[in-house]
Write a structure and sequence with these properties.
Elements (H helix, E strand, L loop, with lengths): L1 E4 L2 E4 L2 E5 L12 E4 L2 E5 L6 H7 L12 E5 L5 H10 L4 E6 L2 H13 L3 E5 L15 E6 L6 H12 E12 H4 L5 H12 L3 E8 L7 E8 L2
């Protein structure tokens, strides 16, 4: 075992997070046990952040005690690994517009007290602003045409100065008539107005027509 980054450990070709809820799987992930410790293998085929790490993400700006806003949290696959990293001393505010995956997330959050599910529309941060404090990082995985604008809007409300953001851009959700590279370049131009782009990663072969951005807030 070797340490890859804060809270992420390498086991041969796999990488994993140490579970804060041992004996409870989230998405049928592989489990590695060492003594009393339990590590959950992070499947890059089922997590865009996992795919970004596999493709060479240079810096994972996560650590214990961090406050995270997760837009488009769904049933909590990726968020469960973030939950492991920030530990019980951190917190994840998980916004999801669809009630079905949120029900699954509610089950996950019963074992992970640092996850707070919120049924809301990420486009309208003012509707859930009274339930969320300022955060250190925003993670967005919302497959919508205006996904870059959604991130910027939420950053203006919730992100601390100098905070980080991560976003998975799905080209086909923004414009099916344009080549993915064109869509990614247009998204980059929008993001550069509010963020310093630390890294841009193409997620193939794990995710088709997806690009991942690691960002730092300028305001």
């Amino acid at each position: 075992m070797k340490k890859i980054s804060e809270g992420v450990f390498g086991f041969g070709k796999d990488f994993a997070t140490e579970s804060i809820a041992p004996k409870h799987k989230v998405y049928d992930e592989k489990i590695i046990r060492q003594g009393k410790r339990e590590y959950r293998v992070w499947n890059p085929k089922k997590s865009k952040l996992g795919a970004a790490i596999k493709k060479g993400l240079s810096h994972l700006p996560l650590n214990k005690k961090m406050k995270i806003l997760y837009l488009g949290i769904a049933s909590g696959t990726t968020a469960s690994h973030i939950s492991d990293i920030v530990s019980e001393s951190g917190i994840i505010y998980g916004v999801e517009i669809s009630s079905r995956p949120l029900r699954d997330l509610m089950s996950v959050s019963k074992k992970r007290k640092n996850m707070i599910p919120i049924l809301a529309d990420a486009r309208l941060p003012e509707t859930f602003a009274n339930r969320i404090e300022k955060v250190n990082l925003i993670y967005e995985d919302v497959a919508q045409k205006d996904q870059t604008e959604i991130l910027i809007r939420n950053a203006e409300v919730f992100l601390k100065k100098g905070g980080y953001a991560m976003i998975a851009i799905k080209a086909r959700s923004i414009d099916v008539t344009k080549k993915p590279k064109v869509v990614f370049n247009e998204a980059r131009e929008k993001l550069e107005k509010k963020f310093r782009i630390i890294q841009q990663i193409n997620l193939e072969p794990y995710e088709k027509d997806h690009c991942f951005f690691l960002l730092k807030y300028l305001d």
